[in-house]
Every structure is written in structure tokens, then in C-alpha cells.
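worker-03 picked up job from queue 'complexes'. Input manifest follows; two sequence lines, order preserved.
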Amino acid sequence: MIFGVPLIQMLILVYAATFDMQKIDMVVVDKDLSSTSRQLVAKFDAIPFYNVKNAVFDEKFAEEMLLKDEADIALIIPVNMERNLIRDNEAQLQLLVNAIDGNSAQLAFSYTANIIAGFNKNLIAEWKGTPEFAPPAKVNISESYWYNSELDYKWYMAPGILAILVTLVGMFLAGMNLVREKEIGTIEQLNVTPIKKYQFIIGKLVPFWLIGLFDLAFGLVIAKLFFNLPMVGSLFLLFGFASVYLIGVLGLGLFISTVSDTQQQVMFVSYFFLIIFILMGGIFTPVESMPNWAQEVNRINPIFYFMRIMRMVVLKGSDFFDLIKEFISLVVLGITFLSLAIWRYRKTA
Amino acid sequence: MEKIITVKNLVKKFGSFTANDNLTFDVFKGEIFGFLGANGAGKTTTIRILCGLSSPTSGELKVAGFDIYKETEKIKQNIGYMSQKFSLYEDLTVSENIQLYAGIYGISVKKRKEKEAELLKKLDLENAKNKLIGGLPLGWKQKLAFSIAIFHEPKIVFLDEPTGGVDPVTRRKFWDLIYEAANNGITVFVTTHYMDEAEYCDRVSIMDAGKIEALDTPAKLKEIYNAKNIDEVFLKIAR
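worker-03 finished. Artifact:
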């Protein structure tokens, strides 16, 4: 269970939860029918990423295809495009983008505009979205993408999902284990012994700490095997961070279980925190684009720090000094949550 | 005689319900003290307070010479407890349970091994050493729970209905273990609602609705209440 579940989740989530544009369906309206326009169309045709649909000669027909979702983007080449290009050294093209999904629309437009610019710098793509959609202010043409040069979204998702899995396994197992002892009554037998509160909590923490670290190692192997995830940074550093991180997460899980009486309560309260932490932690949405108050909330979100650390160490090869802020935050959170758990654990009801 | 437990004006309230209503009694060193009462009379509440699992609403209590409010952890080093509900780890083996509790009480590995071998031989459990406790019959589990409760040689052992749901033969054997512990100088504080077991105790107290109604030796109680056995005494008090 402990290993099968993360394996399946890794495989399903990383493949499914991705923003990668798998394919752009493009419809071309070539009114120019010049050699330049044909070369441009041929260029798109040659890119496996683009599925160039039968060229049509009517803009209305292209718009209809966009509406019916049969195409993502329409490239409209006006009459005299080649002539204008030669005479005025400038020509206009029109791109109609299916902007139902804003994210994909921006991506499709950027990609396409880049390709056109690459074809001939003097061709200017004019943005037009259906429905009305604010175009990206400026099309950024970057020559290379750092740290994830193939723009493989799986590489971006895998460390994030792995961070979540390690969190889930640790937090739930530790919390459930402690409260289960309350339910079946074995905790009473321990509470009449002179065992110290910190000894008890540490004893409850260590096994799940090891399981968490093992799951992380297991997940990294899977990511390497299935997604060929690069490991740019130091594994030793990554596990060092994970060790500190897990103490905080397990401490929180144990704290929740010390205030709960049943497994249901633990589940409910843990879910409350996990959902907030996960969605705010930057797995899908870049934290930088969240409102300020949300970024403030993230200061106490251990998943936010660990997700950053995972991505930075795995993809960028960041070293300890790049991540010193995250490290200090994790240490503070770890001490806080663990102390809360020890403080709240009661031997005498 | 030396007092090992002193209880003065113990009151325990759960909201508006009074579970222990002004209890005062002493337990002497080395005796088997029977704590009798019907279900819900407040026996378990008292035993949990004496073990430090629950805090009293008011009253002065000393266990093994230590104050129950300030020196709870010192008390815990000196007592053993066997709860009503079987509470050893069913998914650990017999030997692992012994190791766990011996470790918590700080018993050395050498001493543990000696005592463990001796114990398993006495209980005739040598073949079950590496079996999970969950799979053992109830009678064996109870004997094991008792043996583990006194494994660290405490001054006092608290037994909360130790023979509940056990057949008469096993109950008898269980009481042999209790006598043996008492002979070794361990004070035994035992709750029960089997009145025949009360006859085995040095002194018994009888509780009803949160109050102690009678406290004396079984022989004296029978005399006072003009009864043939403790069962009759109990029925006279409880009605």
C-alpha cells in the first residue's frame, strides 16, 4: 500500500496534470497563394507539433472551425502578403485564436508568432481572439529555456507531485497511527508508564519519517525511469531538506491527532490543511502570481517551501546557500509543529 | 501498618455527574485490596485517577508516597496497571510486547531476557513467544497483561476487572498469579464485580453510586451485615 499508491499516483498525475500543449490544430486561409505563403504553410506542416488542416479560402469557414473546436488557431494570410513584404519590407498576418482556455490560447499564439518571426522577421502576426481575450502585452521570444530546455512539463510536475505524495503518506500515516491507539486503548497502557512526552512523540515520528524518506527515494527512481527526470543538484542535499521538512509535516500530523479522538476527525482536519497547503503551495499556479495575502499565508505553508526546494534542487541544481531562506523556514516550522505536538499530547486526561 | 495509598475527600465530576462522591480510604502496603461495586458505581474512575490517567476534581491523594498532582511521573515509575480493555499491542508478538514495556521502564537487556524466560515458562507460553498476541485465547492474554503490568516490579499494581469474560478455571489460575505477586510484596488494588473473588481479598470496599458504603475484611463485613457471603452483603448495600 505504502509504495503501490504513490507509484500509481505518480504515473497518473504527472501525465494527466500537465499544461503541455500536446498538439495545435491549425487551419490556414491562404489568400495570397504566393511562394512565400506556401513556404510559411509548409514550415508549419513540417513541425510535428502542428496539425495543419486542409487549407480553406474563406475566413468564415475558419472561424466556424474555431467555434466548433475543430481548430485551435487560424492563420490568415491576406492577399498581396508577398508583394507587401517585398515592396514595403513589412506585411501583416492575422492569427485567430480559440481563446476558450486562456492559458492554451496564449501558448498557442506565442508559439505560432515565434515561428512566424523565425520565418521572416518582417512578418507581423496580429492577434485576434475569439471570444474577446486580452492578448499578451508583448510576445517574448526567448532563444532558450533554462533548466528545462525541452519544456517538458512532466519534469516540472514530477518533483511537485512527489513533494505532495511524501507529505500525504507521512502526515496521514502518523496521524492515523496515534489516534488509532486512542481508539483501541493501547495508549492507556503507555500513559501509565513513566515514558516522557517527547519520547512518545519522537517514537511515533521516527518510523513515518523513515517511510517518508524511503517514499521520496522510491518516487525519484520512478521519475527517472518513466519521465527521465534529470537530477541536476545533490541528492544528499535533497534528502537533507526532506529530513527537516518531514519533521514539520509529521509534527503537524501528530499535533492534529493529539487533539482528535477518532480517525474521522484526523482525516477531516488533515484534509483541511492539506488542500489549502497543496493548492497554495504552487503545484499548478506559480506562487509569484498569487495575490499578496496568499503569498503571506504561504510563509507557514511547509509544502510551498518543499515544492520550491524539490524543483530548484532537481531541475536547477541549486545548492544549500541558494535555499538558505527555505531551510530556515523549514527548521522554524519543524520546531513549531513538533513542539505543538509534544505540548498537546496529554498523558492525563 | 504502612499506608501506600491515601485518599482523602476525592471528588470527580464529569459535568454535572458526580462519579466519585467524597471518597476517603487508605490502602496498606502488601495487601490485596478489593474495590467492589456494580457497573457504573465509579470504580474505574477512581482507579484511573490513582494511576494518573485522569485528574481529580478535588481531594488529597498520595500513591506510593507521591502527590498525585505534582509527582505524577514518579508515581508512574512505581505502579503497574491493567485496564479493563485489553491494551497490549495485538499486532506485536508476546516477546515484542515484553521488550517494549521493559524498555520503557528502563530494564536492562540482560535482566529482561532472564525474566522473560522465567515468565514464559511459568505461564507455559514458551511456544507462543513469537506469536502475535492478537491470536491468543483471552485467558492467556489476561495472564500476560497482568505479568507485563508487574514486569518492572512495581510497588502497587492496579487491576481493573482483570477477570472479565474469563472462565472460572482461568479466573482461579489468575488469582494464583495475584497471590504470588502479593507474596512478592506487591500491593494489589483490584476492582471486580464477581463477589466470590471478593473473598480472596484482604480487605474490600463496596461502592454504590459514587460512594463507598462499606470497607472492611470480608469476614467482618459478613458479620456486620449478617450475611452468608459477600454476595449477600453486596445485595443488601446496593438496594
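worker-03 released lock.
The beta strands of chain A are 24-30, 50-56, 73-77, 91-98, 123-130.
The first helix of chain A runs from residue 4 to 16.
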